[in-house]
Amino acid sequence: MARRSLAPARLRRAINWWPPYLFAGIRVLDIADDWSSARVRLRLHRFNRNYVGTHFGGSLFSMADPFWMLLTMNRLGRDYLVWDRAAEIEFVSPGRGDVFADFKLTEDRLDEMRELTAHGHKALMWFENDVVADDGTIVAKVRKQLYVRRKPAAR
């Protein structure tokens, strides 16, 4: 069955009502109309506080989890397979208030993926972003690796 695409604003609303995000305090603030960027916020409250009163690490990772894949698959289109392959998170400082993650997918990265996959090869692409506090303090560094391959031509 073919994947159906949602408009960015509609996907943003759907994700914001998705129970794992809703109850963790994660809110998608924006997904660009051209799928080139996204911005996500995580508020600290009693449901996502850890034992020492700071952001639970799983919530910090969850806020960053799907966005590189979503942006990439929608920018490349239906002719490409895009999957999450690996992930890393480094906790840098305690998160005690609202934290934010920004994702920006450049045309240069898309061109690189297209070039690497042009002859049916897979590309394993790393993407990085920081989770930052209101004052700009880095709370966590997240890395995601995507598997990208051009789909074979239909016969």
Question: What's the topology here?
Answer:
Blueprint lengths: L7 H10 L1 H6 L1 E6 L5 E6 L14 H8 L2 H10 L3 E12 L7 E6 L2 H11 L4 E12 L4 E13 L5
Tell me the number of strands: 6
Distance between the termini: 17 Å
Q: What does the average pLDDT come to?
A: 92
Please outline the major beta sheet: 6 strands, antiparallel
3D architecture notes:
β5 and β6 (138-150) form a beta hairpin. Helices cover 29% and strands 35% of the residues. The radius of gyration is 16 Å and the shape is globular. It is α+β, with helices and mostly antiparallel strands. The chain has a six-stranded antiparallel sheet with strand order 1-2-4-5-6-3. The longest helix has 11 residues, at 107-117. The protein has one domain (8-150): Hotdog Thioesterase (Thiol Ester Dehydrase, Chain A, Roll).
Task: List the main descriptive attributes of the protein structure presented here.
155 residues, alpha+beta, Thiol Ester Dehydrase, Chain A, 6-stranded antiparallel sheet, 5 helices, globular
